[in-house]
Specification:
The protein has about 475 residues and is an alpha/beta fold. It has 21 helices and 17 strands. The chain folds into 4 domains: about 140 residues, PAS domain (Beta-Lactamase); about 170 residues, P-loop containing nucleotide triphosphate hydrolases (Rossmann fold); about 70 residues, Helicase, Ruva Protein, domain 3, CATH 1.10.8.60; about 60 residues, no CATH class. The strands form 5 sheets. It has a 6-stranded antiparallel sheet. It has a 5-stranded parallel sheet with strand order 8-11-14-7-15. A two-stranded antiparallel sheet has the order 9-10. A hairpin with a 5-residue loop joins β5 and β6. α18 runs antiparallel to α19. The longest helix has 25 residues. It is globular. InterPro entries: AAA+_ATPase, AAA_lid_NorR, Homeodomain-like_sf, HTH_TyrR, P-loop_NTPase, PAS, PAS-like_dom_sf, PAS_fold. Keywords: Aromatic hydrocarbons catabolism, ATP-binding, DNA-binding, Nucleotide-binding, Transcription, Transcription regulation. It comes from Bacillus thermotolerans (Quasibacillus thermotolerans). This is HTH-type transcriptional regulatory protein TyrR.
């Protein structure tokens, strides 16, 4: 869900609670309609005024915006307002800028009634405000230039629904399991969830479970005590779990983790504790776990290669990221997106010819978005022309278009239908075999069982 700033302000104005926004200096930048009524002031009288001055004048006591700026943390206090006998419950929240500093402080106030004093009602208010703060973070992310290479690009209804799902997941603190093929963007979704969550001010630490040697994984993740083993640093080492404290730990390729290490991850998720190597006492961990895999974990569970209890602990919230070939309508936008990025990076102004763009859109992208981004960068670096032609594309992409170029001339030949269809089928199977590394992958790309593919390979003499 995307909104303009004006839409968010209209929503805040429609709520029967007070909202007050200041910048990092305490200067009022916006006040809701209800806040103006509470303070008996117009927007014009408040916008541009500093909350320090307004507090000294006795308009409210204390200024929650001031307290948040001084303490640099979210707070909730009881506030009195000039001319009112009743008290107000006011909560202040920080919205950060791209460097992690304070950009805005937004406060939410409601008069204290007997109903509000209940835990349920207070939690409801907090939930509503958290949603507004998340929307402000979402708008902020869109404006951050450094996020340009990690945007979620897609216009299809299914992909938009996936983004909405990620935004809902960000509101909770439960474990998340992201599934999908290599290069489909699981790490981008993990980062997006983190940046919209309450942990956005903490670190986002990514760990590739398949890239760290098994013998080093435990020490890298949990750290070790001074002199814990031969060759250990004399100062000991802080693990990545500790580095992620207060933030998110993203365990990529979790399906590659050996069984004996899965027990330790289970303990981390279940009890929020871990034991550094050489330590005697457990350490507590305040981290959210997001895991990702390109493998079928349920199949691994059935084969006793992955713990069932860990799978269910990870799978509290799950998202399946679709392969790029399942969202072909987004390929054009992604190509343009990466063209813009690399034109800016290499100080060029290159474009694609219609033939080159058609070939790129027709390709099935077995490596998904990662392959697309790398391909666009490669052709932009290697091309000497401002307009990139089809002949300059990688051979694999040019070969993938031979099928479509073959069908048209073949249809004009005086071939019997059965012979013509056999030729088309042969070219199609050959094309998929060239795209894939294994027959299983080729069968998946072709949308047929592997046994059927093997029969067709035999039929057309493509065994070699």
């Amino acid at each position: 869900m995307e909104m303009a700033n004006e839409d968010v302000f209209r929503i805040l104005d429609a709520v029967h609670d007070g909202f007050y926004i200041t910048d990092a200096n305490g200067t009022t930048v916006w006040v809701s309609k209800t806040s103006c009524e509470m303070l008996n002031k117009t927007r014009e009288e408040l916008i541009g005024r500093n909350v320090w001055d307004l507090e000294k004048e006795g308009l409210f006591s204390p200024s929650v915006n001031r307290l948040v700026l001084q303490k640099k943390e979210n707070i909730s206090v009881i506030q009195t307002i000039k001319g009112h006998h009743q008290k107000w419950l006011v909560s202040g929240y920080i919205v950060e800028d791209e460097s992690g500093g304070i950009k805005w402080v937004i406060t939410h106030g409601r008069s204290i009634t007997q109903d509000l004093l209940s835990t349920t009602q207070h939690a409801e208010v907090e939930s509503i405000l958290n949603r507004y703060v998340q929307e402000l973070r979402h708008l902020q992310l869109k404006k951050e230039k450094k996020e340009k290479t990690h945007q979620l690009i897609g216009d299809t209804p299914a992909f938009k629904k996936l983004i909405e799902q990620a935004e809902k997941i960000a509101l909770s603190d439960a474990s998340v399991l992201l599934t999908g093929e290599t290069g489909s963007g699981k790490n981008v979704f993990a980062s997006y969830i983190h940046k919209l969550s309450e942990r956005h001010g903490g670190s986002f630490i990514q760990v590739n479970c398949g890239a760290i040697p098994e013998s080093l994984f435990e020490s890298e993740l949990f750290g070790y005590k001074k002199g814990a083993f031969t060759g250990a640093s004399g100062k000991g080492k802080i693990g990545l779990v500790k580095v992620a404290e207060g933030g998110t730990l993203f365990l990529d390729e979790i399906g590659e983790l050996p069984l004996h290490l899965q027990v330790k991850i289970l303990q981390l998720i279940q009890d929020k504790t871990y034991l550094p190597i050489g330590e005697v006492y457990l350490h507590s961990a305040d981290v959210r776990i997001i895991a990702a895999t390109n493998r079928n974990l349920l199949e691994l569970v059935e084969k006793n290669q992955f713990r069932a209890d860990l799978f269910y602990r990870l799978n509290v919230l799950s998202m399946n990221i679709p392969a790029l070939r399942e969202r072909p309508d987004d390929i054009f936008r992604l190509i343009q997106h990466y063209m813009d990025i690399y034109n800016e990076k290499y100080k060029t102004n290159k474009t694609l010819s219609r033939e080159a763009l058609t070939a790129l859109q027709a390709y099935s992208w077995p490596g998904n978005i990662r392959e697309l981004a790398n391909t666009v960068e490669r052709i932009m670096i290697m091309s000497d022309q401002d307009q990139i032609e089809r002949e300059e594309l990688p051979e694999s992409i040019q070969a993938s278009n031979k099928l479509s170029s073959f069908i048209q001339p073949a249809a004009k030949q005086n071939l019997p239908l059965r012979e013509y269809l056999d030729e088309v089928e042969k070219e199609f199977i050959l094309h998929k075999l060239k795209q894939a590394k294994t027959t299983r992958e080729a069968a998946k790309l072709a949308g047929i069982p592997q046994s059927t593919l093997m029969r067709k390979i035999q039929k057309h003499g493509l065994n070699k």
